[in-house]
Write a structure and sequence with these properties.
Layout: H1 4-24, H2 28-36, H3 40-72, H4 74-94, H5 98-112, H6 115-124, H7 131-156, H8 163-182, H9 202-209, H10 215-229, H11 231-244, H12 248-299, H13 303-308, H14 310-315, H15 319-330, H16 336-366, H17 377-394, H18 397-401
Length: about 400
């Protein structure tokens, strides 16, 4: 079978995962008020709780689904998750109580954790030197979903608060049918690994994966980098309103441009960049670009200049896939699911931690009695965190010994 069909299925699955949050964001305030009967303030509180539950489920179940795919195969894990995802959206579409919304977000977080299995599938079908570039395709798919989700959610909201959920259920069901007929299994008996509960939880998986030389430090870099990079979705709306006086339309447009930029960089430019720089230098270059972009955004006071920096900020995203490629080549074939599950959990923890860190930093430097008024302070904090990643990466003994990572 043409290898492009399974890759298409994997990329659509990632798009659906990343669309999941953005698709429902435009209707969540109205939906929660409709279900709970309280005002917008209470709806915001419940919205935060539901978002935290979603991220927590990704953290807990990322390694579990990855380990299950190492044992039973990528195909059944991906297809079953899509079927449950379709059911979850139907549940959200008919939910009449907060309890059902909570159950829906629990199921949604679990099924969205399949991004780790999708990445493991991509690792299975990729030659060692192709892994980073193919992980870039996954990053591009995530960027596409990041853009399409809010756009579709906003448009479908015109037909009612439940319309986006019915549309998402239909998309998940259609992709399930597509995958059922075209997705071959990639886990063979040669690389099949027994399922062990002690390795199928976030802490157990982290403990075993970090035994591989150099991976412990690379996973730490991944976490710190994710916290720093989350400044964009975490504080951008507040920053744009405070610093540039932007309204919701302009904020949405700028975030959409950023998502498109990431999709272009990781989908089209990743391969030539890797061919030119290699994985190790691509990580360093991406992190350095991020530091520069964060510093500029920390002090810029003109919104049009901030928009003009979008290509630069998107170019920094080459660091993620290159770093992921290095780690994937350090893990054995029967550990790809476990590794990708661990990465999913790390990113989920960063998603929980980062909003608290960046929003509190923003509040501290914009409050009425702030010693220094600096709305861009969260970006300067991200610059420091990313600079720390560069130092950790350059001083990693494992990377200095390994010529294959260059």
């Amino acid at each position: 079978m043409d290898k492009r069909l399974p890759i298409t299925f994997i990329l659509i699955s990632v798009v659906l995962d990343s669309m999941g949050i953005g698709l429902i964001m435009p209707v969540m305030p109205d939906l929660i008020q409709e279900v709970d009967g309280q005002g917008l303030g209470a709806a915001a509180v419940w919205g935060g709780i539901l978002a935290t539950i979603f991220a927590a489920m990704q953290f807990i179940f990322g390694p579990t689904l990855g380990s299950l795919s190492d044992r039973f195969g990528r195909r059944p894990v991906l297809l079953i998750s899509l079927a449950v995802m379709a059911f979850d959206y139907v549940l959200m579409a008919v939910a009449g109580t907060i309890t059902l919304l909570i159950i829906g977000r629990i199921l949604g977080g679990i099924t969205a954790a399949t991004q780790s299995t999708a990445a493991a599938y991509m690792a299975d079908i990729s030659e060692p030197e192709q892994k980073a570039a193919n992980f870039g395709l996954i990053g591009a798919a995530f960027g596409v979903g990041f853009v399409l989700g809010p756009l579709m959610g906003g448009m479908l909201a015109e037909y009612g608060t439940r319309a986006p959920f019915w549309a998402a259920a239909g998309l998940a069901a259609a992709n399930f049918i597509f995958g059922y007929f075209i997705l071959p299994e990639t886990v063979t008996d040669a690389i099949r690994r027994p399922f062990e509960w002690r390795r199928a939880n976030p802490m157990g998986a982290f403990k075993h994966i970090t035994k591989l030389p150099g991976l412990g430090r690379l996973l730490l870099i991944t976490f710190v980098y994710a916290v720093g990079f989350f400044v964009y979705p975490g504080v951008w709306a507040y920053f744009g309103a405070e610093q540039f006086g932007w309204g919701p339309g302009m904020i949405g447009l700028s975030l959409g441009a950023f998502g498109i930029g990431i999709a272009v960089v990781q989908g089209l430019l990743m391969r030539p960049i890797l061919a030119c720089l290699g994985e190790r230098n691509a990580v360093i270059a991406g992190l350095a670009i991020d530091v520069l972009a964060f510093i500029l955004l920390g002090f810029i006071q003109n919104g049009w200049i901030a928009l003009a920096l979008t290509p630069l900020t998107a170019l920094g995203s080459i660091a993620g896939p290159a770093l992921q490629g290095i780690m994937s080549r350090k893990a054995a074939d029967n550990q790809q699911g476990e590794l990708q599950g661990t990465l999913a959990s790390i990113n989920a923890v960063a998603t929980i931690v980062a909003p608290l860190v960046v929003t509190q930093t923003f509040w501290y430097f914009t409050k009425d009695d702030a010693a220094v008024y600096l709305p861009g302070a969260p970006f300067l904090l991200s610059a420091l965190l990313t600079l720390g990643c560069i130092v950790m990466f350059l001083t990693s003994p494992a990377l200095q010994r390994s010529k294959s990572d260059a």
